[in-house]
Amino acid sequence: MRRSRNPDQAKSANIAAVDVVRLSKALGDHLRTQILAVLAQNSFAVLELCSIFDKPQPALSHHLKKLADAGLVNRRQEGTSVFYQRAHAEDPLTQAAFACIDSQTLAGELLHNVQQIYQQRVQRSAHFFAHQADALAQQTALICAPEVYINTVLDCLRNHSHLPVHNALEIGPGNGALMLALAPMCKRITGIDNAAEMLSEARKNLHHLKNVTLLEQDFSTMQDTQRFDFIAAAMVLHHIPAPAEFFKQARALMKDQSLLVETDMTDYKVADISLAEYGRKEISMAEAEMPALMSLRNTYMDQQPLAGAKIIGCIHMTIQTAVLIETLTALGAEVRWSSCNIFSTQDHAAAAMAQSGVPVFAWKGETEEEYEWCIQQTILKDGKPWDANLLLDDGGDLTQIIHNEYPQMLKTIHGISEETTTGVHRLLEMMREDQLKVPAINVNDAITKSKNDNRYGCRHSLNDAVKRATDMLMAGKRALVVGYGDVGKGSAQSLRQEGMIVRVSEIDPICAMQACMDGYEVVSAYKNGINTGRTEDIDMRLMQDTDLIVTCTGNADVCDAAMLQTIKSGAVVCNIGHFDNEIDTAYMRKNWRWDKVKDQVHQIFRSDDRFDYIVLLSEGRLVNLGNATGHPSRIMDGSFANQVLAQMHLFEQAWADQPENQRAPITVEVLPKKLDEEVAALMVKGFGGVVTQLTDTQAKYIGVTTEGPFKPESYKY
Question: How far apart are CA 342 and CA 626, in angstroms?
């Protein structure tokens, strides 16, 4: 009689078979088993593994991805480096595989290379402390105030008050601040450091304490003849070459029922790291709305086209930007990030990036000084300029700072990709004045950016921002849109679809004609359109009949002091251009009283009359990001897909690596049309659309190829 098989047994057998196949594929290469053997020793950065195995990064990254896909290694980002460590083996098959690998002796050359990496880590730390002793406390305080980690350590002691502390040890006491706080709680406390410069700082602050001993010694050389009740390692673990060995050695020095507290430094500054989980959920939702960007990530991940790229990014730190950042890092890049506007950061997005290991310096509501400090932190790493080779900018501030303050960095930078109109204007001005020292790609004027982000994005986000800020009914009221480029067109549509009566002001006859054809009245705030800057030349009828002014030009003082003095009381004034100089906020700060209603909403009183005020949104900065959440993910999908392709193109060209006499001329070029069409096709596919393909006959008839580009450069769309 034939016995039927138990379904659970069959299922288990199928799972086991799948596991065998998974492991067989992953371990079928001898190099991968060696990688797993080395990762049993410690976790290593990708470039460190390249040195250990003497392999180029693309080849090694390929093997690491295979191991990660099989669940045999874990990947984590620390600062700008990606580290790998061996995964914990939970199933018997993986445990057996790891046991077999570990039973083999590592080749002497590999062991030697591992020790070389450890020595390099020690040397980097020694160099850091030797040169940063005087400024370390100040630099640390910028990231984490000393009282924060000191209080964390003290809280741990208080929570374990049943464990008496007679003999304490601090590893790396810095300037002695923690030892000073611990001294009253301990009978004896020892501090050790292998950097004489750091011990000198500590001795200055602790010389008066009788129960404190400071030793110039490496922790690894300590003997276990003395035991400690409490060991503190405050912000030093990232300088220890083999952290796993450190914990083993620490355990040997500890008494039974003793306490070890380790706190560490983070390479970020955000408003609230506890928002990371919330940010991660929104990032996941945004990924589903960004099909072009995710398609690029999936297509190129195996190839790692940005392996070795080091990108400094300065662009609004939003949820959508988080998807861009994680696409760049998934393709192999290391990044450091700040926001390009003091009000545009979404704090939960910044927190999610910081928690994932991205060095990000951004929070909503920065001061001007904090804004510049954040950019500086992306430029600097360990107190000195980072060896970046690409810039991703929005507005040109990052580009200007590096050209003016860190020109030595330009020797290794392959190029810049610029996101917005204002930044492109600054690049072109720099090029005319022979100040631009590296090539740039104008992402702003790609069709999938300018027509999507600038026009359709503003159509979605302007009315959203005004309603969130003021809660006013917009229908039936009158708006003046200053500027009718792509941003102005989208803004006018945004207000019209709310039922507003929209007028347009323009200096360009062609744009003015387009506004007329689109059904808008073209007007000027000045009589006969002659801008004298004097209140007597203002068109008072227009100003007293306007409830909302929106500036969208990228130019300065387009809503000037005379207009602000004469606009009707209670009118709302805002800007959707990049900088805050479109509205003369300097005049308002100098002459009028500001009263904050809520974040990014101010009543500006022009006199003592309580009804004589205007409402200013986002202090004259980007209203759609200051008072709302900016453009939808589907809109930003095109812009950020362009940024990824631009960064890949610049990195592939490797302009800075070419001999100077063979380098291409420095230019500001629009993203190639072929790449623009590639992004558009991915976006259409994301909508579920189908693009019709030309036949060979049709393509020949209009003089193009069936693959495109389909329009000449002169085509205006």
Answer: 9
Rounded CA-CA distance 639/660 in Å is 32
Q: Is the pLDDT of residue 540 over 90?
A: yes
Per-residue pLDDT, averaged over 8-26, amounts to 59
How far apart are alpha carbons 167 and 156 in whole angstroms? Answer: 16
Amino acid at site 58? P
Q: Which of 63, 414, 449, 460 is catalytic?
A: 449
Say whether 162 is catalytic.
Answer: no
- 131 noted as active-site residue: no
Contact 276, 348 (CB under 8 A): yes
Hey, how many other C-beta atoms are within 10 angstroms of the C-beta on 511? 17
Q: Is the pLDDT of residue 311 over 80?
A: yes
Mean pLDDT score, 114-129:
78
Active site residue 220: no
Q: Is the separation of the CB atoms in 155 and 89 below 8 Å?
A: no
Please indicate whether residue 207 is annotated as part of the active site.
Answer: no
Its sign, for the CA torsion 246, 251, 253, 259, is positive
Order across the sheet with 440-442: list the strands. 360-361, 334-338, 310-314, 390-393, 415-418, 440-442, 668-670
Main-chain phi, psi angles of 226, to 5 degrees: -115, 140
Q: pLDDT tens-digit profile of 269-286? A: 899 888 999 999 999 999
DSSP bridge partners of 366 = none
CA 708 to chain CA mean position, Å: 34
Q: How open is the CA angle 660-662-664, to the nearest 5 degrees?
A: 95
- CA torsion 136-142-143-147 (nearest 10°) is 80
Tens-digit pLDDT profile for residues 579-591: 789 999 999 999 9
Mean pLDDT across 7-16 = 48
311 within 8 A of 390, measured Cβ to Cβ: yes
Residue with tokens 């002695």: 176
Task: Collapse the DSSP code of 368 into the 3-class scheme (helix H, G, I; strand E, B; otherwise coil) and give the result.
Answer: helix
Closest CA to 270 of 336, 356, 363: 363
**Structure confidence by residue, pLDDT tens digits, 197-253:** 778 888 988 989 999 999 888 777 787 677 898 998 877 766 676 777 778 888 888
pLDDT at 140: 54
Predicted confidence at residue 15, as pLDDT, reads 44
Are 511 and 488 a contacting pair, CB within 8 Å? yes
Residue 175 annotated in active site: no
Residues in contact with 661: Cβ distance below 8 Å, sequence separation at least 6, in sequence order: none
- Domains with residue ranges and CATH for the chain: 15-106 (1.10.10.10), 136-263 (3.40.50.150), 273-449+632-686 (3.40.50.1480), 472-577+580-620 (3.40.50.720)
Catalytic residue among 201, 326, 445, 453: 453
454 flagged as catalytic: yes
Burial 270-287 (b: 16+ CB within 10 A, else e): bbebebbeebbebbeebb
- Residue corresponding to tokens 């006859």: 509
* Range of weakest confidence among 38-47, 551-560, 616-625, 630-639: 38-47
Q: Which of 304, 344, 356, 642 is catalytic?
A: 344
Q: Is 599 a catalytic residue?
A: no
Q: Collapse the DSSP code of 253 into the 3-class scheme (helix H, G, I; strand E, B; otherwise coil) and give the result.
A: coil
Cβ-contact 641, 484 below 8 angstroms: no
- Read off the DSSP letter of residue 258: E
Among this protein's residues, is 394 annotated catalytic?
A: yes
Beta strands 440-442 and 668-670 are: parallel
Cα angle 120, 198, 251 (rounded to 5 degrees) comes to 65
> What would the pLDDT profile of 49-65 be if each residue is shown by its tens digit?
999 999 887 788 888 88
316 is catalytic: yes
